[in-house]
Fold:
Amino acid sequence: MNKKEILKEFGRNLKAERNRAGLSQEQLAEKIGLSYGQVIGTIERGEINTSISVVIAIMNALNIDFEDLFDIKNLMK
Amino acid sequence: MNKKEILKEFGRNLKAERNRAGLSQEQLAEKIGLSYGQVIGTIERGEINTSISVVIAIMNALNIDFEDLFDIKNLMK
DNA sequence: ACTTTTTACAATATATACATTGTATCACAC
DNA sequence: GTGTGATACAATGTATATATTGTAAAAAGT
Structure:
């Protein structure tokens, strides 16, 4: 699994989890301290390789684990 | 736990896991496709907020889990 | 003591994430 | 059909991670 694929799957998972939590991109952005919801959009589309601190903030905000965002079994391939 | 503390603990854990694997900063950098070992040094000192793809590459290279690098219980506080 | 390896630290250049604003489209409610 | 909220997408500026090279010091081995 290459970097681009990892980021795309991360984006898909994030979108699903965010919707499950009933939050808009804007609401999630505010919750984790990002200035604007557009950033969440770019992450969900797999366009940017965001920082570990943002990922952790997302995990906290949505109350989910690393495994909910990244499929470990696939990562190792 | 704020961002700076998270990055510092991440750095400490990374250093411990890297030593456990018997790799130098330089060797780990090469293994995960970073150009130079200095970058590993800055991560271990908690100076930079690196990308999720680098963290995943580290997990693969050292054959460890997210929990080995970040203490989930503390992150939530 | 000497050599070798590893790590720390500094400086500069480049790539890219993030901030900010604006526009357009889509979906849904009314 | 109109209005409203959510998302996609573009452009520009700023902040920061990474690339690259160099020097120094600390650590480890001989």
Notes: Residues 34-36, 38-39, 42, 48-51, 54 of chain A lie near DNA strand C (CB under 10 Å from a C1'). Residues 3-63 of chain A form a domain with the 434 Repressor (Amino-terminal Domain) fold (CATH 1.10.260.40). Chain A has one domain: 3-63.
